Amino acid sequence: MQKLKIEEQEATKALLQRIFPEIKVSEKSHDQWIKVFEQQVYTALSNLNTSSKYDEADSELEKTNKSLQAMVNHYKQIIYDTVKLIYVSSQKFVKKNAISSHILHL
Question: Which residues of 74-105 are buried (b: 16+ CB within 10 A; e: fewer)?
C-alpha cells in the first residue's frame, strides 16, 4: 500500500514537471513539494497574466497613437489650406488696392 502511494506521488510529480518544465522544486517531502510547486505555478500564471495585460495595453496604445497621428495630419492639412487661402486672398487684396491706387493717381 505504501509503495503504491509513493508510486502515485512520483507519477504526479513527473506529470506536473512535464506540464510546467520551467518550475523546479527541491523539496523532499511530497506534501512540501506539492505546496511549493503550487505556489510557483500561481506565480508563473500571474506573471503570464500580467504580461498579457501589458500586451493588450500596448496594442491599445498603438491604436490610439495611430488615431491621434491621423487627427494631427488632418488638422495640419486644414491649417495649410487656411494659410494658403489667406495668402491668396491677401494677394488679391493687395493687387486690387495697387490698381485702385494707381488709377487714383492718374
Answer: eeeeeeeeeeeeeeeeeeeeeeeeeeeeeeee
Question: In this structure, what C-alpha cell is assigned to residue 64?
Answer: 490610439
Note the pLDDT tens digit of each residue in 45-57. Answer: 888 777 667 777 7
| 24 found inside a domain | yes
Closest to 31 in 3D by CA, of 11, 9, 15: 9
> Does a structural domain hold residue 90?
no
Integer Cα distance of 64 and 67 in angstroms: 5
Q: Are 33 and 13 in contact (CB under 8 A)?
A: yes
Please tell me the distance from the alpha carbon of residue 103 to that of residue 96, in angstroms, as a whole number. 11
Residue 15 lies in a domain: yes
Residue 106 pLDDT exceeds 70: no
